[in-house]
Design a protein that fits this description.
Helices cover 21% and strands 31% of the residues. By secondary structure, it is α+β, with helices and mostly antiparallel strands.
């Protein structure tokens, strides 16, 4: 696993709706509500993130550029108040905006242990830690 200084790089799959994904790309900031703030606190500067955009799309790859902070100003996310935030740097974006999440992705991503009911792995979650292999595969699909 890659290291970022003395810290091990972690790899994340973020589950997000399309409206908020557009805000993330524009503002280079990911925000969550209090329910997900403890999970977001695990993200550290240098971690890598790919986005699963709800309704079977793959968004871009980003690098975490800050630890979590609270900010109730400036950015309005869709669906509520999301004051717990991290800054992101764009690493790679699909030329077409988003990539269709196809059956090959389901087969190849090891995080989805149950390939027939793979969506169950995402239900009720905003983030999932994934392996460097899963991150690398998803990154390779961003064209």
């Amino acid at each position: 696993m890659r290291t970022n200084g003395d810290i091990m790089t972690r790899y994340w799959l973020c589950i997000i709706n399309e409206d908020n994904y557009k805000i993330v790309k524009q503002e280079k900031t990911l925000g969550v509500n209090e329910q997900y703030s403890l999970a977001l606190r695990k993200f550290k500067k240098g971690d890598m993130v790919v986005f699963y955009v709800k309704r079977r799309k793959l968004g871009g790859a980003f690098q975490v550029d800050s630890n979590m902070y609270e900010d109730r100003e400036n950015i309005i996310f869709s669906g509520g108040d999301f004051p717990y935030r991290i800054k992101l740097k764009i690493v790679k974006l699909p030329k077409s905006g988003m990539i269709e999440w196809d059956d090959e992705m389901i087969r190849r991503v090891q995080f989805f242990r149950n390939k027939e009911k793979w969506m169950l792995h995402l239900l009720g979650r905003a983030f999932c830690e994934i392996s460097i292999g899963d991150y690398g595969y998803l990154y390779s699909r961003i064209t």
